Amino acid sequence: MSAPPRVLTVAGSDSGGGAGIQADLKTMLALGVHGMSVITAVTAQNSLGVQGAWELPAQAVRAQFRSVVDDIGVQAVKTGMLASAELVETVAELLAGTDAPVVVDPVGVSKHGDPLLAPAALDSVRTKLLPVATVATPNLDEVAQLTGVRVDSERRMRTAAEAVLAYGPRWVVIKGGHLAGEAVDLLTDGAEEHWLRAARHDNRHTHGTGCTLASAIAARLAKGRSVPEAVTDAKEYVTGAIAGGFALGAGLGPVDHRWNLTTRTAAPPRA
User: Fold this and answer.
1) Every domain of the chain and the residues it spans
2) What are residue 226's DSSP bridge partners?
3) What single-letter DSSP state applies at residue 18?
């Protein structure tokens, strides 16, 4: 049998299994690609928040990347938590030498508000990482962190997209999940524009949505989809995963990465 498309995630480990490397690999499995990983940091994390985080040395990150890419190869790469300027610059350099499409999730804070990116690393994200991105997927807090643009309406999402695109990614998805009303995202390359809308599910268990969306985009790109097709498919997948989010521990539970593998078409919210 031939191997499925191969996708590499470069991100931090979430010990609670809801986000980070764990969410990425679950998403990739659910979408029919072979997931591989470069771990950039280890977190002590559960449904209540992040209790501790330890970044790996740049040498270890570089060695993991070269080990996978030089032997197995990749059809797409997704980046997540890159805690320091040194790690951002190391990963950006590695990606610049890779032909595969790159999805950059510029993770700044966790779902619980815990910082996951050193303030000193922001300039490296702007000048080193975003220029190598095929698609960047910031949420509204990350847009404000990177560009200073604060989005309080759909109209302002265009302004945010322009500000992010100025740093060099080919496409950007401005995730509007923090706005009131339906869940709307804007995908654009500065010329072509796609508004992606979905009903908002009344479910507080949404840990891992950003990681899941970025990984789903990478999985679809690895299968040869265009960027608009990949992002549209990923939006549908993450919407179903949010609908099925479940309670785990005493705080925010994760989305349901396996929802599309069961016989149900969508999962009702669970308490």
Assistant:
1) 6-258
2) none
3) S
Told to judge if 206 belongs to the known catalytic residues of this protein, a careful annotator would answer: yes
175 is catalytic: yes
Q: Is 113 one of the catalytic residues?
A: no
Cross-strand partners of 250: none
pLDDT-derived band at 64, boundaries 50, 70, 90: very high
Q: What is the pLDDT of residues 241-259, one digit of tens each?
A: 999 999 999 999 999 999 9
Which one-letter amino acid corresponds to residue 103?
Answer: V
pTM for the structure as a whole: 0.95
| Pairing of β 34-46 and β 6-14 | parallel
Q: What is the CATH number of domain 6-258?
A: 3.40.1190.20
Distance in angstroms (rounded) separating the CA atoms of residues 133 and 168:
8
Query: With contact defined as beta carbons under 8 Å apart, do 25 and 9 qualify?
Result: yes
The residue behind tokens 């510029």 is: 106
Distance CA 24, CA 201 (A): 22
DSSP3 helix / strand / coil % (the chain, rounded to 5): 40, 20, 40
For the question of residue 211 being annotated catalytic, the response is yes
Question: pLDDT tens for residues 102-133?
Answer: 999 999 877 777 778 888 899 999 999 999 99
Structure tokens at 84: 């320091």
260, 216 in Cβ contact below 8 A? no
Task: Establish whether 148 is a catalytic residue.
Answer: no
Which DSSP symbol is given to 94? H
pLDDT at 265: 47
Catalytic residue check, 128: no
Per annotation, catalytic residue among 209, 212, 232, 239: 209
